[in-house]
Amino acid sequence: MARLNTESLQLLNHKNIPSDWLTFLVLGDSHVRTTGYDRVRNQYILDTAGERYRRILQHMAKNYGSTASFVVHGGDTIGEGNKDENMKAFAAVSKEVLFAANLPIFVSIGNHDMIWENGDLPTRIFEKYIGSVRQDIHIHGANVHLIRIPTYFPGLAGAPYFRPADLAWLKQKTAASSHVLIDFHAVLRVGKNRSFPEGHYAVLSTPETDAFFQNINPSVKAIFNHHRHTSYEYTIETTLGGTSVQIPYLITGCGGNVTSRPDCPNYYAVTWNNLNTSNPTMSYTPVRVPGL
Length: 292
Prior knowledge:
Number of strands: 13
Number of helices: 6
Oligomer: single chain
Radius of gyration: 18 Å
Strand order of the largest sheet: 6-7-8-9-11-10
Structural class: alpha/beta
C-alpha cells in the first residue's frame, strides 16, 4: 500500500522548482472522520470537518495549483486515531484533490493521529497510511529541507513533549543543511504562548522548548506549529550557536475542524524569495476560504 507522504515525495521529485524562490501552503488540525463509503461515487463519506477540509483543499488547488510547490499539514489529520477508516479517508481526499492539481502534501503527526494504548502512544495507523513520523524532505532545485518531527501527548491530551532520539536526529539534520523549514504539531513556548501555565496541554514546557532550540542551528529559517485551533504570526528572536537569529514562526490550526475561531485563516500561503543568497526573505499570506 502506497503511503501518502511517499507518494507525495515521488510527485515532488518530478516538479520543476526554481532555485531562487519557493511558494508552499501550510495548514493543520483537520479532524476528519468518515461515516461510510459511497460505492456509487467510489469515495468516502465525510463528516462536517471532512467536508470543510475538502473545500480548503479545493481552494488551494484552484488558487495555488500553478504556483505552490507543496502543502504542509501539521497533524491532527483525523478526529479518532484508533480508526483506520478515518486515516484512509483523510489520505484519499488529500490525494483526490491535491494530486489532481500536481500538489504533494507532507503530513506531520498530531495527538489525534495517535492511539493511547496501555500507557503508550502507538503511531501504527499514521505510519500505515501516511508514513514515518519524522522525515527530512529535500526540496530539490531550491535546495531547501523540510523537516517533520513528532511531538507526544500523554493520554493524547497531556502536556506535550519531544523524545530525545527525535531531537538528536533533528540536530544532525539541521547541521547538514543550509535552509531548513521545521514542522511539528505541538506549540513552542514563545511569544504570547508563554502565558499558558507550565504543564498545560496546549503548549510545550519551558524545558521542552529550550531543548528544541538547543538542537537546532541558524540553518532553520521558519518553524510551523499547530494544535491550538487558532492562528498566530510571530518572529522568534534568539541565539543559535552564538549567532543572533530572527525566525518566522506560525501557528496554523484551522484546517477544517469545527471548533476553530471564526476569524482564523484556514491556511497560509508562504513565499520565500532570494533563496540563492545568504539572506532569503519570507512572507506569508493568511487565507480564509469563503463560507467556512
